[in-house]
Design a protein that fits this description.
The protein has a single domain, classed as 3-Layer(aba) Sandwich (Trna Endonuclease, Chain: A, domain 1), CATH 3.40.1350.10. Helix content is 30%, strand content 36%. It contains 3 helices and 8 strands; from the N terminus they run αβββββαβαββ. It has a 6-stranded mixed β-sheet with strand order 1-4-5-6-7-8, with helices on both faces. A two-stranded antiparallel sheet has the order 2-3. The model has no long low-confidence stretch (mean pLDDT 92).
Length: 137
């Protein structure tokens, strides 16, 4: 089993508070002879559409020495999981969960470029309050 990120429990609690049911902790993705683990799998019912929405969430703390290095690693892992999930879990949408201080990058030109060029979905959370602040897109 993989090590849990520093903010794993904060994101899990924030999702539950936001109405999500945690279905996997972690979500196992088998590909070839190797297993990969996305931090969380969750689902909720969209009342108006009476449809189930399923997501997978990769939690990142962004506490390294360089925010750019942290982003490079997070995006690489996100893309790896995204490719596997398109084939193994096509009905589930992958999100990258990041604390609000790190998510400021998406208000800058680099962040806008990443959102435009890659299919990155982001959950911005407050680690202290354990709540979701913003869903991108």
């Amino acid at each position: 089993m993989p090590a849990r990120d520093r903010y794993h429990d904060a994101v899990r609690n924030a999702l539950v508070r936001d109405g999500w049911t945690i279905t996997h902790d972690p979500l196992r993705l088998a590909w070839g002879k190797k297993d990969y683990y996305v931090d969380l799998g969750a689902e909720t019912i969209l009342a108006a559409q009476k449809q189930e929405r399923r997501i997978a969430v990769e939690v990142k703390s962004f506490v390294g020495a360089s925010p750019v290095d942290d982003m490079e690693k997070a995006l690489g892992q996100f893309m790896l999981y995204h490719s596997i999930m398109r084939r193994k879990e096509p009905g589930r949408v992958l999100f990258l969960a990041m604390p609000k201080n790190a998510a400021k990058v998406f208000d800058e030109p680099l962040g806008e470029l990443l959102l435009e060029d890659y299919d990155v979905n982001v959950i911005v959370f407050d680690p202290k309050k354990q709540e979701i602040i913003r869903w991108i897109p």
